[in-house]
Amino acid sequence: MNLCDLEFDPAQPGDTVQLLAGVYECSSFLDLNDGITFEGAGRDKTLIQGSFVFLIAFGPATATTTIRDLTFLAPVLPDVLVGNLVVERVTSTIRFFIGNGGNARFDRYAFEGPGTGVEVENASAEIANSTIRNCGGSDGIALGGTQSGAHATLDNVVIEGCDRGVFLTGPQFPFSQLIGSVTIANSKLIDNRIGVFLSDGTATVQNTEIRDDETTPQIPETGIVTVNGDVNVVGARISGQRFAGIAVSLSSFFDPGADLTVSGTVIDGGTVGIGFGGTDELSSLHVRSSKIRGQTVAAVAVGGDSTIDLSSADTPDDPNVFSTVSGFALSDGRTFVSPFHKYIDATGTRLNGVVFPTQLLDGPVSLAPYFRIASSESGIRF
Hints:
- With 382 residues, this protein is mainly β.
- Helix content is 0%, strand content 51%.
- It has a 23-stranded mixed beta sheet that branches. A 15-stranded mixed beta sheet has the order 3-6-8-10-12-14-16-19-22-25-28-31-34-40-39, with no helix packed on it. Strands 35-41-38 form a three-stranded mixed beta sheet, with no helix packed on it.
- A hairpin with a 3-residue loop joins strand 39 (365-367) and strand 40.
- The chain is elongated, with a radius of gyration of 24 Å.
């Protein structure tokens, strides 16, 4: 049957709807049962287009809807409100929306903007072996929610030419136990204004490349931005950012802190490699076995009233290497409210080619191009 006929003769859960090659253009709201398999003749052969909503509506959370081997062309809007969704070998020029506790799995999904490729609200998604490109002023993957938050896992995903590659926000403090989360592994975030933007959530970025595309005029601003929330960066490479490789801050006095852990990571270029400012005594920065180089102001610039751990006497095998074009390898601009976290631990850290002997430096001290201590209440322990 024609796809549009499903409005009058709906398929039932467990049915398979096989769509032959051709163009399917409906003119109305298509409200479908979940638990159906929609299977085209190939993403370059079966095309769904037209000014209508392709809606997979309410049903049992255990039902799984499968969409494979076809193409969605704007302005069709596929929405999934609840239940499970599997998307395989699908090309789309419009977003997929997953909401209300839904669970989606995307494999070999290709989105070509403008617009957001996947939006997840109070739901979860797994996205693998997929590409999202040319979002324009929109986000590649947008995650959010005010109830349980959104959760996503990305593996071998390319997001290119978007405003923010991955955007995660969620219920704010005091509802922090409901925050969302995202794990990004083995992926490439290219030429996005911001690679990953995190607000009130947790993120893990592992073996992932965040960089500029030198063949285009667009220059990314910051690789990873977090305003509240915790970020763990492992084995990543961040390069070609205009401002910072990683920037961390808090949005209000009532926020529960922000923790950043960086290990085995390379950050090349920019004004600042890691900017960790506007934080409080509940926040912390830990950097291990990482190279931060080529910055024009500071490799690492810190502020607020936080724990700063850049390697200690207990971790001599995990040294960092910080080197700048100009400015300071390590800039400490913290101003303290509490008497804690006075010293930065930086045992074994190499600053512009120099490893300092064991010593304690109290501020204010300025010794370019090595380090700067702006406050008399802070210091560095080498």
